[in-house]
Design brief:
The complex is a heterodimer of chains A (about 200) and B (about 550). With about 200 residues, chain A is mostly helical. Chain A has six helices and no strands. Chain A has one domain: Cytochrome c oxidase, subunit III, four-helix bundle (Four Helix Bundle (Hemerythrin (Met), subunit A)), CATH 1.20.120.80. In chain B, helix 6 packs antiparallel against helix 7 and helix 11 runs antiparallel to helix 13. The chains are: A mainly alpha (about 200), B mainly alpha (about 550). The complex binds copper (II) ion (CU).
Chain lengths: ~200, ~550
């Protein structure tokens, strides 16, 4: 470093910058939102344009119960972060377990819905435009739920093993922001597919 | 300069392992630049083959099928595997150094993003070997770089060439989002003490805006590629007109990406100009806040202009009027920038070193590119010239005349920092003048056959059209550009071994990257610096008259 020009190293008062994880997650959410918006636009654009049946009105039921489960999992994950920050690892594990359970119920009922659509109503991704756009949009969301569930389960395993402490609260919070995003997307998907699209 | 880890010397495998497993932003930046340069040579060779084919009428140098593959591969490669990686490469290398950080915010994500987009580029060219699959159909993709439906459907693109195209673009998109995320997180959370956002170098500001555009613009392309994969592999109907799908929807999705992509590529070029022009004019940049504001404005407006690529589809009078207007509005913030650069040079004591003369070339050429852009923005004018060589000339004026010129300037400017040695000024001047001559022969004269009605993407033309002479001039210009580029590559290699020692600050510049040794140690700064103004090195060199007095 002998050749280098030195720069003054005196301290400026209080130097605070935003959290790395949060900024990163915000960017990821911006990019993901753009992907979802394109799929939602495609869904809306093709609503009612299928040349053959079945139509959404004939085969779709409102998934009220699973929606309630998914939305409440946002609350449980929030409490998990809250408890971790307070250093209550046991409580945190319990809330995480609740979150994973509620998310699991949501994915389970999506699986059941798809099973019925495919085997009882004969709607596949190839059947018509409705099938193509429906499975793509709902499937894109479901894949995000699954990714979130995997990460939440890992967090749960770590906290059960006692490898988690209050210092990890910020990381769990970043994960919880992702989970809130997945829930918010579901509100849009629910409105577009099951309310307006029918 | 000792590296901080003791290392066994000699083995090729050790070096290889060091580079493959690295998470250092400088090494990743250099790998980005290196792989972009390789693809630049490949895609440049493709352009050269096309120019040979078009130099004279009724030519049979390459077959029509080969010609279709050439322009598809040339466009795709230049945009996704030259433009994006070379700009991300410079961003990766420079941003942490300029903000006084030791690395990017997420070093491992950085390595992941690099390798995934490098793999995308590899897949694209692997199609030459594997594209035909079992069908005996064509090899490399031949659907054009914007791959309009229904050309990409299984019926019209049997075999796997289009799949390779889709997957490679998809992977490049994932990598771009990862790097863009990293850039924003680095700039917002890793700045050294005292570097408020209002003191951040303009280069970093522009990269942040570029990255934000990438989130909103590259993601739609990723979404559209997912849809195309669903159509081709799962039998979906997104772009299948037989089942009620829409070919125009693909056009919208593609250009929602495609237009902002121009800004993703040109903003880093502006970023280089923002750093280079002041240093060689010996003045601080004129209108820093206006530059930031104009950049943000460009970012927003660029989201609402995409359908100017679709005037010939027949969008209806309202949409035509809207997109004509919004496109012309972009000229305002762009004009502000050009004004600010000129004002920076005005009254300065300009040093005409190679980085500066490339920047001056950029200024003039970008102005002309903007003017033909305003012409094409007028939808009735576009109906006449849409899909003609006038359009090809216009966008190459932006991509080559503006972006590539600034990339060359950036090489001459930062090469001493990266290697510790100066590039040869004599060779640099040769490079510049040959390239300027070649550029203007090719792309000034390319406007003319466009005005005379020559459509793009035709593999040959009749002798009685009157396009022959013009095309000959265009092709001769390509030879000049090739020669100039070879001189540049030679200069890069020669200077690495024989260049003059650069020292930490050869240009007497003002931003933090010049405060550390050249090349910088792996930890960048022995001690993290503290800054008090936009030009920390000025303050240091002129303690009697620091910038802090004027901020
Ligand atoms: Cu455009």
């Amino acid at each position: 470093m002998s050749t280098a020009v030195a720069v003054s190293h005196s301290t400026e008062d209080d130097w605070k910058q935003p959290s790395r994880g949060m900024v990163g997650m915000a960017c990821l959410i911006a990019a993901e939102s753009a992907i979802f918006i394109i799929f939602v636009i495609a869904y809306i654009f093709y609503t009612g344009k299928s040349l053959t049946g079945p139509t959404p009105r004939e085969v779709l039921d409102l998934p009220i119960f699973s929606t309630v489960c998914l939305l409440s999992s946002s609350i449980t994950v929030h409490f998990a972060v809250h408890q971790l920050r307070a250093g209550k690892i046991g409580q945190c594990s319990a809330w995480l377990a609740g979150t994973v359970l509620l998310g699991g119920i949501f994915i389970g009922s999506t699986a059941k819905e798809w099973y019925e659509l495919i085997y009882h109503h004969g709607l596949t991704i190839r059947t018509n435009l409705f099938g193509t756009t429906f499975y793509s949009l709902v499937g894109l969301h479901a894949s995000h739920v699954i990714a979130g569930l995997i990460m939440l389960s890992l967090a749960l395993i770590f906290s059960l093993q006692g490898k988690v402490n209050a210092h990890h609260a910020e990381r769990l919070e970043v994960l919880s922001v992702y989970w809130h995003f997945v829930d918010a997307v579901w509100v849009v998907v629910f409105t577009v597919v099951y309310v307006l699209g029918r | 300069m000792a590296t901080h880890t003791p290392r066994r010397h000699g083995g090729v495998f050790d070096v290889l392992q060091e580079w493959i497993t690295t998470v250092d932003h400088k090494k990743i930046g250099l790998m980005y630049i290196g792989y972009a340069l390789i693809f630049l040579v490949v895609a440049g060779a493709e352009a050269l083959l096309m120019r040979v084919q078009l130099a004279v009428p009724n030519n049979h140098f390459v077959s029509p099928q080969t010609f279709n593959r050439l322009f598809t591969m040339h466009g795709t490669t230049m945009v996704f595997f030259v433009g994006m990686p070379i700009l991300f490469g410079f961003g990766n290398y420079l941003i942490p150094l300029m903000i006084g950080a030791r690395d990017m915010a997420f070093p491992r994500l950085n390595a992941f993003s690099f390798w995934i987009s490098a793999f995308g580029g590899f897949l694209l060219y692997f199609s030459y070997l594997a594209g035909s699959g079992l069908y005996g159909a064509g090899t490399a993709p031949d659907v054009g770089w914007f791959a309009y439906a229904p050309l990409t459907s299984r019926v019209f693109s049997p075999g796997h060439s289009t799949d390779y195209w889709t997957l490679s673009v998809l992977l490049s998109g994932v990598g771009s989002i990862g790097t863009a995320l990293n850039i924003v997180a680095t700039a917002l959370t890793m700045r050294c003490r005292g570097m408020k956002l209002s003191r951040m170098p303009l280069l970093v500001w522009l990269y942040v805006v570029t990255s934000c555009i990438a989130f909103i613009a590259v993601s739609p392309l990723t979404a559209a590629q997912i849809m195309l994969v669903i159509d081709r592999y799962l039998g979906g109907h997104f772009f299948d007109t037989q089942a009620g799908g829409s070919a125009v929807l693909w056009m919208h999705f593609f250009w929602i990406f495609g237009h902002p992509e121009v800004y993703i590529l040109v903003l880093p070029a502006f970023a280089f100009a923002n750093e280079i022009i002041p240093v060689f004019s010996r003045k601080a940049i004129f209108g820093y806040p206006a530059m930031v504001a104009a950049t943000v404005a460009i970012g927003f407006i660029s989201m609402g202009v995409w359908a100017h690529h679709m005037f010939t589809v027949g969008l209806g009078p309202e949409a035509n009027a809207f997109f004509t207007f919004s496109t012309m509005v972009i000229a305002v913030p762009t004009g502000i920038k050009i004004f600010n650069w000129l004002a920076t040079m005005w009254g300065g004591s300009i040093r005409f070193a190679t980085p500066m003369i490339f920047s001056i070339g950029f200024l003039f050429q970008f102005l002309i590119a903007g003017l033909t852009g305003v012409m094409l923005a007028a939808s009735p004018f576009d109906w006449q010239l849409g899909n003609s060589y006038f359009v090809v000339a216009h966008f190459h004026y932006v991509l080559v005349g503006a972006i590539l010129f600034m990339i060359f300037a950036a090489f001459y400017f930062w090469y001493p920092k990266i290697t510790g040695r100066m590039m040869s000024e004599t060779l640099g001047k040769w490079h510049f003048w040959l390239f300027v001559i070649g550029f203007h022969m090719t792309f000034d004269f390319m406007h003319v056959p466009g005005l005379l009605g020559m459509p793009r993407r035709i593999y040959t033309y009749e002798a009685d059209r009157g396009w022959g002479g013009w095309n000959m001039i265009v092709s001769i210009g390509a030879i000049f550009q090739t020669a100039a580029t070879l001189i540049f590559v030679y200069n890069l290699i020669r200077s690495y071994y024989k260049g003059e020692e650069a020292g930490p600050d050869p240009w007497d510049a003002w931003t933090l990257e010049w405060s550390t040794s050249s090349p910088p140690p792996s930890y960048n700064f022995a001690e993290i610096p503290t800054v008090h103004s936009r030009r920390p090195l000025w303050d240091l060199k002129h303690p009697d008259d620091p910038d802090t007095n004027y901020e």
